[in-house]
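note to self: dont lose this again. the chain is below, predicted strucutre after it. 502 aa total, dont forget to put it in the shared folder this time
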Amino acid sequence: MRGAGGAAGSPPGAGTFRADFTASLVVFLVAVPLCVGVAVASGVPAELGLITGIVGGLVTGLLPGSSLQVSGPAAGLTVLVYEAVQEYGVAALGVLVLVSGLLQLAMGALGLGRWFRAISLAVVQGMLAGIGLVLIAGQLYALADAKAPSSGLDKIFGIPELIGDVAGSSNSLTAVAIGVGTILVLVLWPRFRQGAKVLPAPLAAVALATIATVSFDLPVARVEVKGLLEAIQPPGVDQITQMAEVGVIGTILAFTLIASAESLFSAAAVDRLHDGPRTDYDKELMAQGAGNAVCGALGALPMTAVIVRSSANVFAGAKTKLSRILHGVWLLVFAVLFPSALGIIPVATLAGVLVHAGWKLIPTKELLPLWRERRGEAIILIVTAGAIVITNMFEGVIIGLLMSVAKTAWETSHVHIDVKGRDDAEDQPIKVRVLGNATFLRLPKLLDELEALPRERVVELDLRGLRHVDHACEMALATWTERHNAVVSHAETTDEDTKVPA
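---
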């Protein structure tokens, strides 16, 4: 594959336009069900998901950064958006996304985009796994046309009761059948390579489920439809005044951190799929920020770069950023001319799409090898995911980051003590050389090894072999040496005074 500008950076020609045009149609077909599904799962009108997809194509798609990755509403932010909407209302969503976008613009301008590559991969995978678990748990209720509890734990603990309710309701069983059928199509459709080339799996699954629902007039919930203009809710004065609340600030920071990390990790993944120009991370962060600022001004969902759409764009043969811009045009045309088409889509089939997307967020294949090779990283992944399920997105990520920092600090503070002269004459000092990185984390080990030295011998402590020594460790070692040698000196003086003359 080639990046922007065609092969070897040559200007776009007829062949390049044809490839971008075809790729844009493929990405559009993938994006429609995902935009609508993410919006419904987030507890907002379906049109807001389409608006975010349109902005991702027409605004972010025009800006420099990464030429081939595609932005829009992402399953990775669904849980956080749902929590924010439940806490502050749909009207407050605009200001949350707007400020997050402005923060991304500022971070990109300050050159902080590349620093997101320093975030522990285990934390990112744990974050996505936690999102996937909560997303699956919540969408199981939508799969049965039932209302989901608010917290992640309640969703999980409420599943047995949900199963009982479904078993006693024919309408719920019908909805579940639609949702499960959607998941089966998503899993099996890619195996039919000819069909998958013509129609992407998400669109095929939604289309088949919708046709079955309409043909048999099945009694299941459908997507509620508003006009595109009616769905736009720019932030007002009341929403701006909420900015002073601590919870709102935490939500904004969570939006910013997760959206930025997911976009830049997606950019790194997309770069591995083609041999065109590499991503400029700072410019890409600013492009994402500009898109989120526009989405916030329109009261729409937050956006990130989405690996599903981006990989579809690359594999469909896209050459330049024109493909993602055109996909935004097709979304706009669809939302303006065919909004009523959304009203026949069953909610259960969108739930099935998101259950499948949530499962793909969980690194099931990587977890066991990671446990065997890097157990500490696997523990961080599991704890981060569990913390997100038990608490919320922001607190779970913070816990994961703190664990990652603590693990790194522990692993890098390797220290070794080299003891010489232990077997020399008693009047000769023991020479102790400390090597490595001496921090407070290793101080108990250091003091234990020093305490094991003979108490009656003078100790000469050499710290010149340390690459790093923190203040606490330096003071503790100096104090121990001074006290140890003082005791030895006092004992020798006492022995000398008590000797009987010959």
